[in-house]
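A.,

Following up on our hallway conversation. Structure tokens first:
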């Protein structure tokens, strides 16, 4: 026997157009008793998304991009309810769940306080997005597969604490020389940490294999941001593959390297955005108004220049300190490339386009020099 929820879903999720959405929302609005089943169905949609390779941050990114803040809050409530069923979550999930928590401190169910028709419409719009999520490359086991969940690698806390502190200071200062010195020290620690992990592997005290994580690459100027992430990943013995349709890059590498790639990319993006804002203000004070082209050219130059500098810095540290570990590092590089090719057997490359502002390119290159990391 069909329930109210079945009839609402048939009209709104499996039908066409907004008329079906209105019909489904009207059915749900008229029957408050359908709410528990509506929640259970939403949790089932989430479980299917996890099985297709999606993670909370990935789904939240799409909802923020394609829907509204209200849908984002409904999603956070739904995810919080769904993950309570698991005794153990995959690595990185808790950090994603913490970011999904409502910063305003609203209680669960806050979205239901509006009129029932509007609430039902928002829920059905969210479910329609969840239902249509395709299968993507998994970057870890889905929740519930406890026997398959690997132990999460915990990098040396003192090392990561020092790196975070150095990058935070680099982000906070307005002095290029100070930011340069702080970022250089952070990259030095990152490179040494990678060599130390290779040493542990060579001594048989570490059984790491390449893993993967996803990092958001949000609009605007997402191409330049993806290029910057690729540069950071490559310098730290990882590989990045950008999915422009879904707004993220998948980074493949050994777990300690993945952690420092996330830290350094976030910091350099913050530094680059701050430098771009300062340079743009100076340009506008001089009477220029081409803000969009300036920003796009700035970030493209910033990413390109940093790619060269990061590679140079990583090469210097490796040459100075790797020594007999060079074959081990080479083997780890091969393992990372092999895993990336297994996950993404059909990648494509493209040129960076839309760089047309000479002043933006010049200022972006200068900012990359000031933020150099080695």
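Then the amino acids I'd put at each of the 374 positions:
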């Amino acid at each position: 026997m069909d329930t109210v929820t079945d009839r609402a879903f048939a009209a709104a999720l499996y039908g066409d157009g907004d008329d079906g959405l209105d019909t489904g929302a009207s059915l749900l609005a008229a029957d408050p008793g359908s709410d528990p089943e509506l929640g259970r169905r939403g949790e089932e949609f989430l479980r299917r998304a996890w099985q297709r390779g999606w993670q909370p941050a990935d789904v939240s990114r799409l909802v923020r991009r394609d829907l509204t803040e209200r849908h984002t809050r409904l999603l956070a409530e739904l995810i919080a309810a769904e993950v309570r069923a698991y005794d153990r979550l995959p690595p990185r999930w808790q950090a994603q769940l913490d970011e999904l928590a409502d910063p305003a401190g609203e209680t669960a169910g806050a979205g239901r306080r509006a009129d029932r028709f509007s609430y039902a419409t928002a829920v059905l719009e969210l479910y329609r997005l969840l239902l249509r999520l395709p299968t993507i490359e998994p970057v870890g086991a889905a929740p519930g597969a406890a026997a398959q969940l690997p132990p999460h690698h915990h990098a040396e806390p003192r090392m990561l604490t020092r790196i975070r502190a150095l990058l935070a200071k680099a982000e906070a200062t307005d002095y290029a020389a100070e930011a340069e010195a702080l970022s250089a020290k952070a990259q030095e620690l990152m490179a040494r940490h990678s060599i130390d992990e290779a040493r542990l592997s060579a001594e048989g005290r570490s059984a790491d294999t390449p893993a993967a994580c996803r990092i958001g690459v949000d609009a605007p100027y997402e191409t330049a941001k993806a290029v910057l992430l690729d540069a950071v990943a490559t310098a730290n013995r990882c590989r990045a593959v950008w999915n422009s349709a879904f707004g993220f890059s998948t980074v493949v590498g050994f777990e300690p390297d993945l952690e420092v790639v996330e830290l350094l990319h976030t910091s350099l993006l913050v530094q680059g955005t701050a430098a771009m804002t300062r340079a743009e203000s100076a340009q506008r004070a001089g009477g220029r108004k081409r803000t969009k082209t300036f920003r796009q050219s700035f970030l493209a130059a910033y990413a390109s220049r940093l790619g060269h500098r990061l590679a140079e810095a990583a090469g210097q540290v490796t040459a100075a300190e790797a020594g007999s570990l060079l074959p081990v590092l080479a083997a780890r590089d091969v393992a990372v490339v092999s895993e990336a090719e297994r996950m993404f057997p059909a990648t494509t490359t493209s040129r960076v386009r839309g760089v047309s502002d000479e002043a933006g390119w010049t200022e972006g290159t200068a900012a990359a020099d000031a933020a150099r990391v080695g």
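The mean pLDDT is 83. Curious whether your intuition agrees with the design.

B.
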